[in-house]
Specification:
Layout (H helix, E strand, L loop, with lengths): L8 H20 L8 H9 L18 H15 L4 H12 L15 H24 L14 H18 L1
Length: about 170
Amino acid sequence: MSGRTPFSLGGLAALLLAAAAALAVAATSGSESSGSLEQRTQAVAATLKCPVCHDLSAADSPAPVAQQMRAQIARELRAGRTPDQIRAEFVAAYGEWILLSPPRGGVDLLPWLAPALLGLAGLALVAGAIRRWIPAEAGSPPAPELSDADRHLVEQALASAGSEVE
């Protein structure tokens, strides 16, 4: 047996890519349509910025404007509107800066793709490093022999190194 693992590097990369895709799908699919009205209101408000305190979501902000936003979201959900329709209404009123997450299209797609591209580049670096660490197969050509002149230089270097140690 040559000591190789049963998985090839390509198989391992495909497995890691499939796992990353599954995590991405699980992260983007929210539970906005299920749960109580309060939970659904919080889920929608958590995707919107508070207009007063820009570093907090409308779900986390104690500002009166955020409270009004949450009440409006609850009314809209009771009326049967979808979370996407409600967000679109806030974007129309305030602009795209009201969204906590950047839109997924055009140039704004770059923040969404950058982690995946960096991950793939990291996988390529790891695969290259593993390839260098794996010893040569038994069927590969042997390393070239040293010439007599090179062998003589190595022996001289070893001899002089040995005399320096003593």
